[in-house]
Design goal:
The structure is a homodimer of 527-residue chains. Chain A has 15 helices and 17 strands. Chain A has 527 residues and is of the alpha+beta class. Chain A has an 8-stranded mixed β-sheet, sandwiched between helices. A 5-stranded mixed barrel of chain A has the order 2-3-4-6-5.
């Protein structure tokens, strides 16, 4: 589909086209000039015999398709000792020291040491140039892989270093960075020790997200996040779910108008969907049987907490069941265990990398998952000294306390709290047939924080109308929702999961802004 | 994450809770009454000996967890002949005929015939009841699988029928449907023959989308759509891409403000993203190397055509490359071939099902895909009598014509048109280093319609600024975009794909509203 064009673009004249060509040449010339300057310094002491071995390359504009193969930093180890390789990487650090220059080259999570020594092919001018390249620039280097006698602790590739022979800058960074990658990577413990080591606060990180995301920790966090989505979909496809896509722009603030963002839609107003629930249920009424959807959901809540976002990724599912909504909780519980197992078994490197900066206990879970009933939860809280009514909802502190009590008693960081009081759930929640005070609804928790809310939904339009009236809802405003069930609908249930919360809590992080690549909250709309 | 609560919900009183219990009982009683009425009719002729074998069941409210296993319609064949099975399905049709009743039971794409005959266990009253149940109701039936002497052409399960013994209504449909499933399923040819056979127009379908989606064709279309997403992700993960999520709410109408929806965001205004491009590029600048994202994109274009939507699902990707942007076109081309092959080999049933209603030629593609350069395309058009300038963009009719010419010459429904004139592309497009009139950009086409637009992007901030100025863009408005490249950025390129278009064109459908579950266009915001 066509990429949106920027406004103000007109068709440039032929003259302008020539000008454009000149602009490209200008950039290339600038690069040449810089290489020249380095060479000039040398020139006073005589011709630089290394001058073809370094410099700033012209901009990669797809001039040619050279045969040269670039290898990955992650593949550099003793298996390829003595081979000459080309690597494109970021200049993580560069330190000139007399006739030597040490560099660390970084490629995503991986780092390798490089070294240059003045000799018959490497000139002093080349060392000087290399030492002066700004950190975070992208460079192409040629070097020989050499096994080192002692492990290089500061790099991921600990057994080898690169003896560099050529060094070209592909894309230059400005020399003054708004944050240092080392500072943004400093382990949490060290930050707190009150040492002189500088730290980077959350806002500075987010203001300069492009740099912040380059830390090994962030490279790992967002790979874990991708894994959560992948495992969610794998687990559900395995269970015969079909992926669907639901509209984000909706005509009516169906959930009553609170906490909804308004959109100007041609000559009328529309709203941003707070959840895909209505559409998931329509897909069930339309015979898709089991559906899931991964997509943006929006909450116009003025909540500035560690766990609220105004836009987040919803992992939503809905399914028809045969006789009892525990068929749904079993599926969701099994799915979560598939995710937890998949993360543990397939992404241990990424998890360890995050733990290095943000230490956390390994995530524990039971198979099958623990399902507690609400009254049992209340009893545990009361036994621990909490005063609350039997049908009160759980406050956030009580949720956290219950999480600790459950962990102590059952040794699990994940559990299902089933049978919430009817009074604290939405009108479409199916009441418990055996006890009218309770409902066929559940929340699920990770490390004591809620990550899923769900229920059996009422699929009978008459009963649904009764329940809506009971809640004082004007039936006219939810007519199309109720009408969705007038053409036969199977009993069904489901739930909605906050993706960023799952990643945050699985990894034991303290702020949801760490697991949203470009977070949106009441105070942040950029970058 | 908590499901949004409807407004107006208060905690009901204990009295109210009792009332709620009564409401549930009322629904159950109503069902009983209906069963009773049928029995009563019989009663005048004596006790109904079949009265326990049919009726309207009470609402499934998760009272119990019976052992009874429901089997899938798709599994009913001669392998299970003579077995007694329970099935839950929709009543597709029901036709009483004296002492017999024929029904067709439907489960998603699958149908099976059921038959009831009056005998020592099945009463006349039971036949009457069964014949009177509204179509589209959901029923639980018990029956014996019986091999039939002649294939049942009207059902997907052609070798067997069910000799029904029990028949219970689980969820009733209203008797008057706003559209008939048969009418909505009628093959396109028959529709056009001007016969009396009623048809369902697109708007009626969409107004009653829940019913419309129940057709076998729609069940298949949206399974193909799910497959496209799955194959897209599989193809890219295989090529080391990482999935990311980009914000839909953005602070500035970065593309200039045209065709952008405005959102009220707390005390300020924000906009809905027209594409994730800026964020994909930031992810590349942040070292993710290869990224993709699947998500909603928004275009406030007042275009009422067969191929425009105001909200669609973007399949977007972006990757760093080494030397030449053809590394990118190779990856994208290979990915499309993986999708086409995957659909053909893994989803032949679904494709055939759609073709039954909407006939189309099988989708043809070459491996590797055909890559034409823009001037070659222009030459083909000129040779065919089209008058156009060498650097004019392609009009929609010319795109379609070129698609037919390419099909005739190369026998492919997919091709890449490379090297667009620089003048018709956005400012961030990398100019061709060898010919300033052209650019390192490309569109890709399926059956003559554009489904992807992409390019090598300019990764040098100075050159990007020059190009923006050249296009008359105020640099202040795109400062943060340009600044994204100041800390070193690899050469990169990518593209954006319209998911609904891919599905529409692969299947040879005529309207994008057929491949969007709940489409949004300038005139449609519901359901």
């Amino acid at each position: 589909m066509s990429e949106a064009s920027p406004a103000g673009e007109g068709a440039p004249s032929k003259k302008a086209l020539k000008k454009q060509q000149k602009e490209a040449e200008k950039a290339a010339k600038k690069a040449e000039r810089q290489a020249q300057q380095a060479a000039d310094a040398e020139a006073s002491e005589g011709e630089d015999y290394a001058k073809d071995r370094y410099g700033v390359s012209r901009m990669v504009q797809s001039h040619e398709k050279p045969d040269r193969k670039l290898v990955k930093v992650s593949t550099l180890n003793s298996d390829v000792a003595d081979q000459t390789v080309w690597v494109r990487a970021r200049l993580h650090t560069s330190r000139g020291k007399g006739k030597q220059c040490f560099v660390v080259l970084r490629q995503q999570q991986f780092t390798v040491q490089g070294i240059l020594n003045v000799n018959e092919t490497i000139s002093k001018a080349m060392i000087k140039f290399t030492s002066g390249v700004a950190k975070e620039s992208i460079v192409d280097v040629e070097g020989v892989v050499a096994v080192v006698p002692q492990k290089i602790e500061s790099c991921t590739q600990q057994d080898v270093e690169l003896r560099l022979q050529r060094f070209y800058v592909i894309s230059q960074s400005v020399p003054r960075l708004p944050l240092q990658i080392e500072d943004a990577s400093r382990p949490k413990g060290e930050e707190e020790e009150g040492s002189q080591a500088p730290t980077v606060n959350q806002d500075t990180r987010l203001d300069n997200r492009i740099l912040d995301l380059r830390t090994q920790t962030n490279q790992a966090i967002f790979r874990v996040e991708a894994a959560v989505c992948q495992l969610f979909r794998e687990a559900l496809r395995k269970r015969d779910f079909v992926e669907i896509h639901t509209p984000k722009i909706i005509s009516a603030a169906s959930e009553g108008g609170a906490n909804v963002f308004t959109v100007s839609y041609f000559k009328t107003n529309a709203y941003l969907a707070q959840s895909p629930q209505l559409y998931k249920q329509m897909a069930i009424a339309a015979d898709f049987n089991r559906v899931f959807t991964v997509g943006a959901v929006f909450r116009a809540e003025d909540s500035n907490t560690h766990r609220h976002l105004c836009e987040f990724v919803g992992l939503d599912l809905e399914m028809a069941f045969d006789y009892h909504y525990h068929e749904v909780t079993d599926v969701i519980g099994g799915m979560f265990n598939d995710i937890f197992r998949g993360l543990r078994d397939r992404f241990p490197t990424e998890i360890a990398m995050v733990n290095k900066q943000f230490p956390a206990e390994p995530f524990k879970f039971l198979d099958p998952p623990l399902r507690l009933e609400f009254p049992e939860g209340v009893k545990m809280l009361k036994d621990a000294g909490v005063e609350m009514g039997d049908e009160d909802d759980l406050s956030t502190p009580n949720e956290k306390l219950l999480g600790r009590l459950v962990k102590a008693k059952y040794d699990t960081d994940f559990y299902i709290l089933d049978k919430y009081p009817l009074a604290v759930r939405p009108f479409y929640t199916m009441p418990d047939p055996n006890n009218p005070k309770y409902s066929n609804s559940y929340d699920m928790f990770m490390r004591g924080e809620e990550i899923l809310s769900g229920a059996q939904r009422i699929h009978d339009p008459e009963f649904l109308s009764e329940r809506a009236k009971h809640h004082g809802i004007d039936l006219e405003t939810i007519k199309s929702y109720i009408d969705s069930f007038r053409f036969g609908a199977p009993p069904h249930g489901g739930g909605g999961i906050g993706m960023e919360r799952v990643v945050m809590l699985y990894l034991g992080l303290d702020n949801i802004r760490k697991t949203s690549m470009f977070p949106r909250d009441p105070k942040r709309l950029t970058p």
